[in-house]
């Protein structure tokens, strides 16, 4: 039997730095689990369907999304169906997850955050209520770690916007406000956070050993289903 392939599915970005970060994440995951293919659902290719058509044997698709909205619930299943691949398992998205909350806290500390400083979780935003619910769960996880309420701001699509949340916190008397970037990689959305008026903006989650382990764990969890799907075809 061929080795079960891992297909990492990301959103896509025109930022070369963001594309390089996704590639670096895939390379780091590959060191743990073997060859890892990257695909995108928007902006650039290859698409998940194109990658899956090149794979023989079972495959596990890991959606590299921090919340499960339209891309996870609609785009990824459609791409799998369009590929015609007979033995694919799709795992749940990367987030929300306590692992990501831990990385968010470390990124905040690196940006200069100290206990007592206000925190805004900056997410891309979505029109899908399921994705917004996931962002609220992520904010709750981070709130437990910073021992204070974490407000949510969105970069696009949803309300309130990050600058408005930062302004509101300052109007409420907060002296120092930091933005936790609930984004996987650099790109236009993260660049916008520099103008949010915060005292510091944390780096995106990016390539972190804990996130590499999380992707590898998602992949391993999907292997049995992918192999079973292959056996049904025989």
Provide structural commentary:
- This protein folds into two domains: 116 residues, Rossmann fold, CATH 3.40.50; 104 residues, Rossmann fold (3-Layer(aba) Sandwich), CATH 3.40.50.
- Helix content is 46%, strand content 16%.
- The protein contains eight helices and eight strands.
- The protein has a four-stranded parallel β-sheet, sandwiched between helices. Strands 6-5-7-8 form a four-stranded parallel β-sheet, sandwiched between helices.
- Strand 1, helix 1 and strand 2 form a beta-alpha-beta unit.
- The chain is elongated and about 65 Å long.
- The mean pLDDT is 95.
Mean pLDDT, to the nearest integer, reads: 95
Question: Would you list the SSEs in sequence order as H and E?
Answer: EHEHEHEHEHEHEHEH
What name does the CATH topology of the largest domain carry? Answer: Rossmann fold
Outline: elongated
The major beta sheet can be summarized as: 4 strands, parallel
Strand content: 15-25%
Which structural traits does this protein have?
234 residues; Rossmann fold; 2 domains; 4-stranded parallel sheet; 8 strands
Summary of the model, kept short:
This protein is α/β, with parallel strands linked by helices and 234 residues long. The chain folds into 2 domains: 3-93 and 206-230, 3-Layer(aba) Sandwich (Rossmann fold), CATH 3.40.50; 96-199, 3-Layer(aba) Sandwich (Rossmann fold).
């Amino acid at each position: 039997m061929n080795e079960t392939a891992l297909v990492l599915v990301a959103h896509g970005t025109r930022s070369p730095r963001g594309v390089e970060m996704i590639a670096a994440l895939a390379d780091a995951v590959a060191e743990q689990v073997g060859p890892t293919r990257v695909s995108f659902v928007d902006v650039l290719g290859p698409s998940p369907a194109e990658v899956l058509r090149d794979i023989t044997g079972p495959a596990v698709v890991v959606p590299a999304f921090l919340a499960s909205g339209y891309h996870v619930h609609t785009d990824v299943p459609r791409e799998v169906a369009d590929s015609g691949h007979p033995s694919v398992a799709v795992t749940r998205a990367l987030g929300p997850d306590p692992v990501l909350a831990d990385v968010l806290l470390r990124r905040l500390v690196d940006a200069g955050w100290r206990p007592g400083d206000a925190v805004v979780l900056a997410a891309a935003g979505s029109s899908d209520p399921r994705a917004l619910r996931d962002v609220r769960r992520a904010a709750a996880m981070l709130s437990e770690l910073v021992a204070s309420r974490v407000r949510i701001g969105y970069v696009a699509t949803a309300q309130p916007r990050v600058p408005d949340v930062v302004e509101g916190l300052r109007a409420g008397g907060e002296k120092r406000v930091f933005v936790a970037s609930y984004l996987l990689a650099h790109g236009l959305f993260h660049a916008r956070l520099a103008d949010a008026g915060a005292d510091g903006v944390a780096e995106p989650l990016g390539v972190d050993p804990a996130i590499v382990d999380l992707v590898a764990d998602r992949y391993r969890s999907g292997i049995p289903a992918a192999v079973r799907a292959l056996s049904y075809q025989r």
